[in-house]
Design a protein that fits this description.
The protein contains eight helices and eight strands; from the N terminus they run E-H-E-H-E-H-E-H-E-H-E-H-E-H-E-H. It is an alpha/beta fold. It has two domains: 2-96 and 205-242, 3-Layer(aba) Sandwich (Rossmann fold), CATH 3.40.50; 97-202, Rossmann fold (3-Layer(aba) Sandwich). Strands 2-1-3-4 form a four-stranded parallel sheet, with helices on both faces. A four-stranded parallel sheet has the order 6-5-7-8, with helices on both faces. Strand 3, helix 3 and strand 4 (93-95) form a beta-alpha-beta unit.
């Protein structure tokens, strides 16, 4: 199968790293194609960034819609643009936050989210509410690690994440940790070994769930909310997207 992995920010280094992490867990025969928007922020660390990230996901999904992808993963913990991508892609489209919440809830009675900037915690909180995980997500914890610092995650950064996760597990009385940034994808194994509890990376979870849904022959329904966008005039640089 062919899986489209969309990084909503414009960091080529992070796109490559997320793609590599996805390939590590993908089944034999799954081709991972990692892409990023042609415009937008280098990292997503707030509502303004998130809005442009969603537009970038919509752009890339529209461009890829006729390429025969079996499934799509949106690799940013805010799940920006997932609904837009579902309108234009035929196969299942998964956000890494939604996938991570489902995986953690299957493993533990309660989980904690450890993310990057504290200011983005509200975005994760709103997703928890939207997806219906209020009873099992026991806390969302920011570390104030800039997203782009994850591109060169040294020992000190991993130590910071470990310490934050230990505090979260104790304070929340939870039994699993969800990593709240796609840029943390390569750190899950190390942190799980140190913490002794499940550490869920949303990129890995989304890839495996996407493979399963595609293998079952399940697609995004086009008869209602996720019907293809209606044709209409568009203006400016996006004029070509209205056809």
């Amino acid at each position: 199968m062919r899986l489209l992995l969309l990084n909503p920010n414009t960091s080529a280094a992070m796109t490559a790293a997320i793609g590599a992490a996805a390939r590590e867990v993908a089944a034999p025969g799954t081709e991972i194609v990692a892409r990023q928007p042609s415009f937008g922020p280098a990292s997503i660390e707030g509502h303004f960034d998130d809005a442009f990230g969603a537009a970038g996901v919509a752009e890339q999904a529209r461009l890829a819609a006729g390429e025969g992808f079996d499934a799509t993963v949106v690799a940013c913990f805010g799940d920006p643009g997932v609904d837009a991508a579902r309108e234009v892609m035929a196969g299942p489209v998964l956000g890494v936050a939604e996938a991570a919440f489902h995986a953690a809830a299957m493993l533990a009675t309660g989980f904690s989210v450890v993310t990057t900037m504290t200011r983005t915690c509200v975005i994760a909180e709103r997703l928890v509410q939207r997806y219906g995980f209020e009873r099992v997500c026991r806390g969302i914890h920011g570390t104030d690690i800039p997203v782009l610092d994850l591109e060169a995650a040294g020992e000190a950064l991993v130590d910071t994440l470990e310490a934050a996760a230990r505090r979260a597990l104790a304070a929340d009385r939870s039994e699993a940790v969800v990593l709240g940034c796609a840029g943390m994808a390569g750190l899950a194994g190390t942190l799980q070994a140190r913490l002794g509890v499940p550490v869920v990376d949303g990129v890995a979870a989304a890839v495996k769930f996407a493979e399963a849904l595609a293998a079952l022959g399940l697609k995004t329904p086009k008869t209602g909310d996720y019907a293809s966008p209606r044709s209409k005039p568009w203006a400016g640089w996006a004029a070509g997207f209205g056809a």
